[in-house]
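R.M. (postdoc): so does anyone remember the format we settled on? I'll just put the structure tokens first.
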């Protein structure tokens, strides 16, 4: 990484958004509109989640990004999100978290073998529920939920789980693709669950959107199991980098246009526009 690609002033950039699509659009356009290809540090905060635990997205941004990822032979958004939370298995489990964990244990060897080069050191959800040691046989999520269910007034510092393991992950290897996500925490509030995540580094082109979606799905799962709404997702990234694609690549044009449309304000209603006519029902 050359000095020219690094930000001149390492002040944090705060991005607030009503959806993961809006958050990604704001980050992407910020990088494209400023010198270099890094944001260090980056803090984003997403709200706007509905009461049904679905994750709202802008379909134009999502489809434009997936098309670009396919063209560049990268994993699509869903595959990246799946490394953090297996949404399809949760749907299959029909709200039974014990079945979710069982399904994942059965499927994990296949996921790992499917792409041994990228997944050989593990996956994030695997670290969260199959850490290798600790209570509940290393299932950190089950431990947190069991404590939440068992007694009120538990210390808030309890609601945290780690994906980084010094024993396995402190390595002198020049490039280490996993784990970039280090830690997650969950804070029950009067407004609902607030989830927090920390990344040491993050790839903005081919990972970030899927990261945000997977984290939101994980947070929605935890909120569902706690019986409270999902209020907010906060993500802190030490160094966010736009790499593996050039800022001037013409293939980015549809994604950039979709991002700008996502952030465009709704059309203003003319001040002298006639009020809509209210039609009353006529008796038969």
């Amino acid at each position: 990484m050359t000095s020219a690609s690094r930000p001149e002033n390492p002040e944090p950039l705060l991005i607030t958004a009503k959806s993961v699509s809006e958050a990604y659009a704001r980050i992407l356009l910020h990088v494209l509109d400023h010198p270099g290809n890094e944001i260090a540090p980056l803090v984003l905060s997403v709200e706007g989640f509905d009461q049904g635990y679905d994750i709202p997205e802008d379909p134009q941004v999502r489809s434009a990004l997936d098309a670009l990822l396919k063209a560049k032979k990268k994993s699509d958004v869903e595959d990246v999100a799946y490394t953090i939370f297996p949404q399809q298995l949760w749907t299959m489990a029909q709200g039974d978290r014990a079945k979710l964990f069982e399904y994942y244990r059965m499927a994990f060897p296949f996921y790992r073998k499917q792409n041994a080069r990228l997944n050989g050191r593990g996956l994030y959800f695997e670290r969260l529920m199959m850490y290798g040691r600790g209570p509940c046989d290393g299932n950190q999520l089950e431990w947190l939920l069991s404590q939440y269910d068992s007694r009120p007034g538990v210390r808030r510092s309890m609601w945290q789980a780690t994906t980084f393991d010094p024993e396995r992950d402190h390595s002198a290897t020049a490039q280490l693709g996993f784990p970039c996500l280090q830690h997650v925490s969950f804070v029950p509030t009067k407004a609902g669950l607030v989830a927090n995540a920390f990344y040491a580094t993050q790839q903005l082109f081919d990972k970030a959107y899927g990261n945000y979606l997977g984290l939101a799905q994980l947070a929605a799962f935890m909120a569902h199991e706690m019986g409270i709404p999902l209020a907010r997702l906060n993500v802190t990234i030490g160094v966010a980098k736009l790499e593996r694609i050039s800022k001037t690549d013409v293939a980015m044009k549809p994604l950039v246009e979709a991002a700008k449309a996502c952030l465009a304000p709704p059309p203003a209603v003319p001040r002298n526009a006639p009020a809509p006519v209210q039609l009353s029902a006529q008796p038969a």
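R.M.: ...and that's the designed sequence above, right after the tokens. Also worth knowing: The CA atoms of residues 2 and 46 lie 32 Å apart. The chain has a mean pLDDT of 88.
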